[in-house]
Specification:
This protein is an all-alpha fold. Helix content is 82%, strand content 0%. The chain contains 11 helices and no strands.
Length: 274
């Protein structure tokens, strides 16, 4: 009886695993995530909250129950292997935060409910690939961030020494200059800053032009290059993995066909021997 019970339990677990891996189940979870994200956004509108607050709360509670049931099904289907997948751990943390009480001193946690929308990243394969590419690009990005910080620091020291007297509001200290050049690097209002200084020091445009060319058009574009390269490598790895899987499947089918042919030949030889 114990062996039969174990076999029945294993069979039921396999059915649950097949359920959570079905495409329609994944699409259903994606739909719930999108609807829940929309309702959480609508809750920020006072008029909508006053008119449909009760309905929005019900939808939010139903979505949370669905997320909890999904996690329980996956935990039962995969067991401890559930935590070997980083995306499962990510979902577990997000849903765990949503289950924490949001009253009293923990009322600030109500704002964290929107983190459930981030589950869309783990539910959509294309988004997972983008995030994986970003994570794999982190080592290269660290070098670029260091380079950018060095350029920003050197330019800030130069800017403080050159423009502290003519523009103390923007370049009066190293801290102010760092903030100003960061703003210039983002191309936000840099022309107004440059024109104010050029009224006193007409040659100042050379400094700003050189800084923008180096920081914005060169170093910052390296971030894009590193991320794009990482995405290309991940896509190439996925294609290679799919090709290897297809080749292994085709090889298995060929082996099966050969075995069937050999079995037919053996049967024919037996018939001829009779």
């Amino acid at each position: 009886m114990s062996a039969q019970a174990a076999a029945a339990g294993a069979s039921f677990r396999e059915r649950i695993r097949a359920l959570v891996e079905q495409n329609w189940f994944q699409y259903f979870i994606i739909g719930v995530i999108v609807v829940n994200a929309i309702t959480l956004g609508l809750e920020t509108d006072d008029e909508v909250q006053a008119a449909y607050g009760g309905l929005l709360h019900i939808i939010d509670s139903v979505a949370l129950v669905i997320f909890v049931v999904e996690l329980l099904l996956k935990l039962y289907a995969y067991g401890l292997r559930f935590f070997r997948d980083p995306w499962n751990v990510f979902d577990f943390i997000i849903v765990g935060i949503a289950l924490m009480p949001a009253s009293g001193d923990l009322s600030v946690l109500r704002a964290l409910r929107i983190l459930r929308a981030l589950r869309l990243i783990s539910a959509v394969p294309s988004m997972r690939r983008v995030v994986a590419a970003l994570l794999s690009a982190l080592p290269g990005m660290a070098s670029i961030i260091t380079l950018l910080g060095l350029v920003l620091y050197v330019a800030s020291v130069m800017g403080t020494k050159l423009f502290a007297e003519s523009s103390p509001e923007y370049f009066g200290s190293l801290g102010k200059t760092l903030f100003t050049l960061f703003q210039v690097m983002t191309m936000e209002g840099w022309a107004d800053i440059a024109r104010d200084i050029m009224k006193v020091q007409p040659w100042a445009w050379l400094f700003f032009l050189g800084f923008i060319l180096v920081s914005t058009f060169t170093v910052l574009n390296l971030f894009i290059a590193v991320v794009v390269n990482a995405m290309q490598e991940n896509v190439a790895a996925d294609i290679k993995h799919e090709q290897e899987a297809d080749a292994a499947e085709a090889h298995g089918e060929r082996e099966l066909i050969l075995k069937e042919i050999q079995a037919l030949r053996a049967e024919l030889q037996q018939l001829r021997g009779r």
